Amino acid sequence: MSSLLLSKAFINGKWVDAADCDMFDVCNPANGKLIGCVPNMKIEDCRDAIVAAKCAFFSKEWSCLVAKQRADLLRVCESFKILKRAVIETVFVYTFLKCWAILMKQNVDDIADIITAESGKPITEAKHEILHGSSLLEWFAEEARRVFGEIIPSPKKDSELLVIKQPLGVAGLITPWNFPLSTITQNAGAALAAGCTVVIKPSLFTPLTCLAVAKLSEEAGFPRGVINVVTSNNARCIGEYMCKSRDIQIISFTGSTNIGKLIYRLCADDLKRVSLELGGNAPFIIFDSADIKKATESALLAKFRNCGQTCIAANRFFVQDGIYDRFVACFKQQVEDLVIGFGCAEETQMGPLINEDQFTTICELVEDARKKNACILTGGCGLPCLGKLFYAPTIITKVPPEARIYCEEIFGPIAPIIKFKTEEEAIRKANDTKTGLAAYFFTENLQQAFRVAKRLEVGVIGLNEGLISTAEAPFGGIKDSGVGNEIGRINEYINIKYICLGNLK
């Protein structure tokens, strides 16, 4: 594939095998073919990575850097190199912007091939993820220089009150398979900008993308030990060790609510800080005043991007009765026009599900809806002619409240559509879930826009918009959808310290 397709983990600036030389396979979900093998690291390997990160945190090469220097490593690694041309004795000054972000852009095709091969997502989506991931690094490079302290007016004449902000220390990052690059850059970018060092545990399904990203960080010039990658197919064992390690000050996890709660419990004994971005059950509400064309196009994006396997994917579609028939007809046409196939083809719009467990879950959800007299308007079956993990994009109407797809996070290409009459009914049904990550709604009524946005119990809202993630805005959920906010700011990785200077007579 490319020089970025690696078969070793990255610890303390070195590319290493597992201590016992054990390996595990990484396969393409579209065709089951082997892509590569990576080290199946154990507790002792993870311990080495944490020790390396801790040593790097306190080393002069990292802890003594000022904010601008950390920013430059994210953005500009080598400012100038002077080359002399002996023949004409002229000095040329070349500016090399070998930053991590720029290196990603320069290698977008190679990285996209890896993302598509191990996650199955279409190549165009993979390239978009890389550009988004790069923008996150660029943003955090600037945020490194905006960690401001405070001077607080003192109630006493002989004292001054100061507040300074300092990095937490070592950050443990447990990242998912559905966005194997951008979830790394959003968390590592924030941690590094704050002055932390990181140990990354990527998903067992997509470790190759993480290793490629680590390779580019090495080329960008980060000191050894600042970024470490531990690959393993035993997520529970490595994750539990990271959560219990006294040398890790924060755990960032993106994944299911059940695993997030387990991580929260494991971190509780040491009162370790956590940043958890967990499951969602996003409502997509379309009011009578909505622009149908915009709503349909956004619905297609919010539902079927990455085969519906995103935490902020539209999960339940609520359509007001006055516009219901027109929306369903328009949406059905666009869904049936989706190009499904292998991600490496430029025209592909939707690829396979990630694994057999996910495929089985999708089949069970559709079968449950069918048994409960829901209407399978289109799709509702696998596509074995393409491969065993391909599933047809599906629309289900007349969904009863007792159907599993009415209340469970789907994480696949199924769009259940539910009719409603009033705004009050839509809000009540949208909020009737334990999770609260994202929501979408479409209206051309300004007063309604503000009313509904305030009442939806979520952390992120797309108002007349289906693509909502951006480097500049905070991203996090409420209720069972997580703790903390990722992207936007780096506060999760910072300690606040108050200093009282007394007796200044």
Walk me through this protein's architecture.
It is a single chain. By secondary structure, the protein is α/β, with parallel strands linked by helices. The protein has two domains: 9-277, Aldehyde Dehydrogenase, Chain A, domain 1, CATH 3.40.605.10; 283-470, Aldehyde Dehydrogenase, Chain A, domain 2, CATH 3.40.309. It is built from 16 helices and 24 strands. Strands 16-17-18-15-14-20-21 form a seven-stranded mixed sheet, with helices on both faces. The protein has a six-stranded mixed sheet with strand order 11-10-9-12-13-23, with helices on both faces. Strands 7-8-24 form a three-stranded antiparallel sheet, with no helix packed on it. Strand 9 (170-174), helix 7 and strand 10 form a beta-alpha-beta unit.
What keywords describe this structure?
7-stranded mixed beta sheet, 6-stranded mixed beta sheet, Aldehyde Dehydrogenase, Chain A, domain 2, alpha/beta, Aldehyde Dehydrogenase, Chain A, domain 1, 2 domains, 505 residues
SSE inventory with pairings:
Elements: E1 9-11, E2 14-16, E3 23-27, E4 34-39, H1 43-58, H2 60-63, H3 67-75, E5 78-85, E6 90-96, H4 100-106, H5 108-119, H6 123-143, E7 150-152, E8 160-167, E9 170-174, H7 182-194, E10 197-201, H8 207-220, E11 227-229, H9 235-244, E12 250-254, H10 257-268, E13 273-277, E14 282-286, H11 292-304, E15 314-320, H12 324-336, H13 356-371, E16 375-378, E17 394-397, H14 404-407, E18 414-420, H15 423-431, E19 435-436, E20 438-442, H16 446-455, E21 460-463, E22 478-479, E23 482-483, E24 494-501
Parallel strand pairs: 9-10, 9-12, 10-11, 12-13, 14-15, 14-20, 15-18, 17-18, 20-21
Antiparallel strand pairs: 1-2, 3-4, 5-6, 7-8, 8-24, 13-23, 16-17, 19-22
Helix pairs in contact: 1-9, 3-6, 3-7, 4-6, 5-6, 5-8, 6-7, 11-12
